[in-house]
Amino acid sequence: MTASRSRRIVQSDWLMFLVVLILLVVGLVMVYSASYGFALFEGGAYEGRPAHFTRRQGVFALLGLGAMFVTWHIDYHVYRRFAVHILVLTVLMLLVVAPIGRWVIRSRSVQPVEVAKVGAIVYIAVWLSARGEHIRDISLGLIPFALLLGFIAGLIIAQPDFSTAVLLVATGTAMFFVAGADMKQLLIGFLFGGVALTAVMLVASYRSERVQIWLHGPLSDPLGRGFQPIQSLVALNEGGWLGVGLGMSQQKFVLYAPHTDGIFAIIGEELGLVGSVIIIVLYAVWTWRGLRIARYVQEVYGMLLAVGLVCWVTFQAALHIAVVAGLAPFTGTVLPFVSYGGSSLVSCLASVGILLNISQGSAGREGVA
C-alpha cells in the first residue's frame, strides 16, 4: 500500500465504521436470541439446530465485511464511468427475479433487489449530477426523473416488494431535493407519486387490508391481519424500561419472523426501552456521520451518492422501527445491519465501504475528526 493510500485510509470515517461493527455484533446476538426457539419445535425444519441462523448470519457478515473492504478501496468515481452498465445490470437483476427466477433465487437466501437498490442509487446520483441547473426545469428535470424512478420502482413492485419500492422512492426524492429541486417540483412529485403509490397499494387486497388494520387498530382483526402488530406491541410492553433479559423473550415463540421483520420487537422485549433507545442512537450517529461525509465532499456526484446511501439505510431502519411500534402499516422490512438476511447485510456493508471511500476525499477538506 502506497503512502498516499495509507494516508487516505487513516482519514476515513472510523466512527461510522465502529458504529457498524457494534450493530453487527448486536445483530448476531439478537438473531441467535430471536431464532434459537425454532430448534425447540419438534418435527420443525430447524429442530435441534439452535445456532442455524446465527451461523448463516456470521457467514453473511464475513462476506459483507469483505465487500465493504473492497468498495472501501475502490475510488467511487469509477461507478460514474460505468453508470449505464450499472443501470442495465440493475434492470436485469430485477427482471431475472420474476416470475420463475424468483422462487429459485429466494430459495437460496439471495434477493437481487437488495443489490439492485445500490445500483439504482448510484445511477440516480450520476443522472442528477449530470443535469446541473436543469434539475429545476419541469420538462428536463422533474418529468424524466419521475419516469426513471417510477420505472425502477415499478420493477421492484413487480417482485412483489412494495415496501422496498416506497423506500427507493423516498430515497430518490431526498436525492432530488438535495440536487437542487424547488418546492413546486416536490409538491407536484408528492401529489402524483402519492396517487400512484396509493393506487398500487389498493390493487393488492392484502396491502389495503394492512392499511385498514393500521387505521382502525390491530384489535379490529386480532386473529388475522392484526395478529403480528399486536404481538409486536406486546413485546415492547413486556420489555418495560430494562427488558426481561437477554434470551428471555416469550414473543419470539409467537411472532412470525422474530429474527427478521420483528427483531426490534425482540430487542425491546429483552433489552427494554433503554436498549431500544441505544439502538436508535447508534443509527442516529451513523446517519450523522454519513450526512457529514456528504456535506464535505467536494463535488455534486459524491454528495448525492452519499446522501442516497445514507437515506436508504436510515429510512429502512426508521420504517422497521415504526412498523414494530405501530406507527406505520405492517410490512416486511428488515433492520439494517441487525436483522437476519444475507443480501441485505452484504449490500448494506458494501454501501458503507462506498461511504468510507467518499469520506477519504471529504477528510481532506474538513480535517480529520
Structural class: mainly alpha
Relative helix content: over 70%
Instruction: Categorize the overall geometry.
Output: globular
Order of helices and strands: HHHHHHHHHHHHHHH
Annotation field: number of helices: 15
Short characterization:
The protein is built from 15 helices and no strands.
Would you give an account of this structure?
By secondary structure, the protein is mainly alpha-helical. It is built from 15 helices and no strands. It has helices spanning 3-10, 14-35, 52-72, 77-81, 83-97, 100-106, 112-131, 138-157, 162-178, 183-203, 205-216, 227-239, 263-296, 300-324, 342-366. The radius of gyration is 21 Å and the shape is globular. It starts with a helix and ends with a helix. The relative contact order is 0.16. The model is unreliable at 103-108 (pLDDT under 50).
